[in-house]
Amino acid sequence: MSSRVFLFVVTLLTATLVGTVTAGYFIWQAKDGEVDVGGPFTLTDQTGRQVTEKTYQGDWQIVFFGYTYCPDICPTTMATVTTALDALGPLAEKVTPIFITIDPERDTVEQLAGYHEYFHPSFAMLTGSEEQIAKVAREFRVYYAKADDEGASDYLMDHSSITYLLDPNGRYVTHFNHGIAPEKMAETLRQYIGG
């Protein structure tokens, strides 16, 4: 095994472990509907439009933090959300899924616009300055850090992998752990949104 492949495998395992530990800590602290996550932010979506948390008020929101160069967790989660929304039928019109990058250095508006084409069309894909991203990540209690790879352009990012459900007022309702089946996510969404 080459040193580069070995480094990639070790980094991937570390990212998975960090995400699992962070999720475990969050769940230990949280009961559904009793967690103070989210808050004010100003970011830019994949069309170049400036948005804030108020842009999405009135919609149920599925919020996930990740990055477009992510090899596994992010595209898997995005595909899960896409499949779950497809399963909801007309009820999905009440939901805005929101992807917030933790890698603004590479995830430009143009990069997000291209990534957007692979997932549900209602996705809002958000980026901003490093300071803006750090602020919104703190609001959502999201961990992220660049993996140490001597400044390589194809670096990985360690990050937590919780997906949040917020109500139309932007308040935390529940969360989904990485690996949830799309059917289970759709069932949970239907219980909250259709109820």
UniProtKB/TrEMBL annotation:
- The record lists its disulfide bonds as C70-C74
Enumerate the GO terms in the molecular function aspect.
metal ion binding
Record domain Thioredoxin: where: 16-195
Q: Where does Cu cation bind?
A: C70, C74, H159
Which CDD domains does this chain map to? SCO
Keywords from UniProt, A to Z, are: Copper, Disulfide bond, Metal-binding
Q: Does the keyword Metal-binding apply?
A: yes
Extract the InterPro entries matched here. Answer: SCO1/SenC (IPR003782), Thioredoxin-like_sf (IPR036249), Thioredoxin_domain (IPR013766)
* Family, per entry: Belongs to the SCO1/2 family.
Protein name in UniProt: Protein SCO1/2
Q: Which organism is it from?
A: Thalassobaculum litoreum DSM 18839
